Amino acid sequence: MNPYVYVLILIGIVLQALFIKVEHEEKYLLADIFKGLASLMFVLVGYNAYLTTNNISNRQLLIGLIFGMVGDILLNLRYVFPKQGQKIFLAGILSFLIGHIMYLVALIPQARHLWLFVAIGALVAACLLVYIFKTMEVKKAFKIFGVFYLGAVFIMCSIAIGIAIFAPSNRSIIFAIGAILFTASDVVLIFNTFSGVTRFSLRVTNLSLYYIGQMLIAYSMFL
């Protein structure tokens, strides 16, 4: 692994911290620029891994990371253009959904007891969705996207954990940790967005878990 990969990771962490600070100051355009640059760092880490290994799985993961970066930019762009906020937000969720599908495409060939972990992921997602729909006010469009998105997230995470359990390796364990952090960040985001009480501490938690998760997924591609 080239030493500059660690430089990319460090730069990404700094940019993500700057993004969180600037967003909290409600400088939304500058925040989105910092967010896009921070996300570019985990894409570059993944790209470097792809160039080093040049295998199909890493190509699929790299595509997933790229869609994650696009989703990042779109989710924060809704603050820059508030009148189109809902459409931009849904476009961002769609981009993340495609990214998760690419992660699934990379994971499924490695999976053992695939349907068991698909069922576990789907069941956990369904329980969370039922709770959200019963306790929070969520618009119909968000409900529809939420079913598909959370289903993909939890199934991806469940399969990643299954691979780490039944085919443990540095790669599978690091990826699984990244997937768990990514999933946890989405749960925090949901409660912070739709519970009616928005807290900066939860926003920091959501963004930190997400970024570390994506960076770990990118880093796992070297292993």
What does this structure look like?
- This protein is an all-alpha fold.
- The protein has one domain.
- Helix content is 85%, strand content 0%.
- It has eight helices and no strands.
Main sheet overview: none
Average pLDDT number: 91
Unreliable stretches: none
Strand content: under 5%
How many separate domains make up the residues? 1
Number of DSSP helical runs = 8
Please state the structural category.
mainly alpha
Shape: globular
Q: What layout of secondary structure does this protein have?
A:
Blueprint: H1 4-24, H2 28-53, H3 56-80, H4 85-107, H5 114-135, H6 140-166, H7 170-194, H8 200-220
Helix pairs in contact: 1-2, 1-8, 2-3, 2-8, 3-4, 4-6, 5-6, 6-7, 7-8
How is this structure best summarized?
Helices cover 85% and strands 0% of the residues.
Task: Give me some keywords for this one.
globular, 8 helices, 223 residues, 0% strand
